[in-house]
Amino acid sequence: MSGNINLLSDTLAAAKAEDRAALIAYLPAGFPTVDGGIEAIKAAFDGGADVVEVGLPHSDPVLDGPVIQTADDIALRGGVRIADVMRTVREAHAATGKPVLVMTYWNPIDRYGVERFTAELAEAGGAGCILPDLPVQEAALWREHAQKHGLATVFVVAPSSRDARLAEITAAGSGFVYAASLMGVTGTRESVGAQAEDLVTRTRATRSDLPVCVGLGVSDAAQAAEVAAFADGVIVGSAFVKRMLDAPDDASGVDAVRALAADLAKGVRRGA
Amino acid sequence: MPSNNYFFPDPEGQVPTTGGYFGAFGGKFIPEALVAAVDEVAVEYDKAKADPEFARELNDLMVDYTGRPSSLTEVPRFAAEAGGARVFLKREDLNHTGSHKINNVLGQALLTKRMGKTRVIAETGAGQHGVATATACALFGLDCTIYMGEIDTERQALNVARMRMLGAEVVAVKSGSRTLKDAINEAFRDWVANVDHTHYLFGTVAGPHPFPAMVRDFHRVIGVEARRQILERAGRLPDAAIACVGGGSNAIGLFHAFIPDADVRLIGCEPAGHGIDTGEHAATLTAGEPGILHGSRSYVLQDDEGQITEPYSISAGLDYPGIGPEHSYLKDSGRGEYRAVTDDAAMQALRLLSRTEGIIPAIESAHALAGALEVGKELGPDGLIVVNLSGRGDKDMDTAARYFGLYDTDAEVAADEAHTAEIEGDAK
């Protein structure tokens, strides 16, 4: 069974056809529980997210700030396993028909076995992976298996990426390009980095037809609108997780996710 | 996979590859935001290596500031307990700041200046790398932030005070296992956000390329000196060169110059903590599997789904679930041997050296001494061993005093008495 890379591309193209940016939400699997995490993802789609990235929690999340570290920690202490992440992808996709990606670090996949992981993710209906500590030079094995199973390989670009490197990355990637809005780890910020628009422009100048979606630091509708004015997609993670951490109980956490997604969905439609 | 080219004819020219691989190990598994900075380090390091002025500056510092060459001390009263083999200690504990760490720090501090960066960050476990880094930053006028696991700030409180005295900011890291691994995670997070003016002065032979090779090169002087000194003193090469391994910097520093000497066994001593069987250890090469941690592929302690497991050692400097990729390469190629030494064996060796030779070693280095006691018995009276005494034990006196019950009165020590009673059997 082939993965849903085409569904991902079609979804991003459809947003573009509506002359708006896509809304991409990040939520960790197993947080606060496996079933609770699945409900939160469905709520994000229900509120208006076009794509969801499911976090596969890792013990050493070097690119994540305190909010996602806390959620990962709760998920790992709850005993989340890769099988649970696959179930999360399967149920979230089956319930909504929308594209679902996995975002994680390279060691869990390396250890699990890249063929086994990509085959299972495709079978679960996954659309691809974002692996922020697997730079393009180390990614040959992953790309071979991802391609074989119809999964997107979403690479990250950063404000520090030079133009020649951007060209290498867009040539190797698929699905979309994840443009980090600023130099830093995940987390909500008062403002989105001024470097983001420049990075999007430079990434597009590589003449790649991949959509360029911007993440890191976006937390509210106004910021989403600001980013949507120059990017093909807006990625929001920590703001969702923070709402869930702050909620008095799991049910109101899910409601808060739905409400934030609805708010951000308006934002990405204002940006055009 | 390993080829003989690594050992002959040019040990410095063959590994790592340009991509930073030592056989199957190494590489550069880093976020895109750090790629430009890590590449800059590699380029600047290559330029510095080719620049005679850099070599001259570094050599002057090693002689005038660090106090190199460090002594090679024969320890016959200690060796009497090691099957009668001759044992020599390479005295890195006598370097300025009290450990081998200063070798690498001075090299990278000079490089920081060359790159025009004004701020340095570093991780530290036992505090020795942090102290050395804070020292170099004071010397060169660089801003300095040191990340240290909260547990380690408690058990190595003396070194925290030393770093602050030197003007460094010390950040106690409260995430994860609150030890060295988490300090490194936090330092990487800082680096991603501040990379334009900050150099991450990585403290061991792990991390992304070029750190494993660069840090090794700066420590290589240990083995180069030891090899010359033992030839002068004993008239032959040793049967074994022994060092403790956490990340592996002092060990690779001792080993590297001996790699072409096929008859010299290279023996690394890993922390077995409470025993490998208990699961409470940090013996990465003995009990780990290949994986990716902190930017390179090497052996790591992990579960079946790639989550890094929490290590344990009485020694803060060895309490790490990873290991430098070149050690993984030496292990798999058979050139290096790695054995595990328990907390108790290390502490007994610490006391033995203190009481037979008047040298109090760091708990890290005591693991190598315990290994030497074993290897000496295996070799017998004709044996000749060089041990890297990588650091001095001042920082560990609180841990040792509690372990051996050396305080006169202390409520906390009273709680440890039951344990102390168990190890009352005197080492000497």
From TrEMBL, chain A:
The keyword Lyase applies. Pathway: Amino-acid biosynthesis; L-tryptophan biosynthesis; L-tryptophan from chorismate: step 5/5. The active site is at 53 (proton acceptor), 64 (proton acceptor). The keyword NAD does not apply. GO terms for molecular function: tryptophan synthase activity. GO terms for cellular component: cytosol. Its EC number is 4.2.1.20. It comes from the Bacteria. The alpha subunit is responsible for the aldol cleavage of indoleglycerol phosphate to indole and glyceraldehyde 3-phosphate. Tetramer of two alpha and two beta chains. Belongs to the TrpA family. This is Tryptophan synthase alpha chain. It comes from Streptomyces griseoluteus.
TrEMBL record, chain B:
Pfam families: PALP. It comes from the Bacteria. Belongs to the TrpB family. It is an enzyme of class 4 (lyase). GO terms for molecular function: tryptophan synthase activity. InterPro entries: Trp_synth_b_CS (IPR006653), Trp_synth_beta (IPR006654), Trp_synth_beta/beta-like (IPR023026), TrpB-like_PALP (IPR001926), TrpB-like_PALP_sf (IPR036052). The keyword RNA-binding does not apply. This is Tryptophan synthase beta chain. Residues 66-391 form the Tryptophan synthase beta chain-like PALP domain. PROSITE patterns: TRP_SYNTHASE_BETA (PS00168). The modification N6-(pyridoxal phosphate)lysine is found at residue 101. NCBIfam families: trpB. Its EC number is 4.2.1.20. The keyword Amino-acid biosynthesis applies.
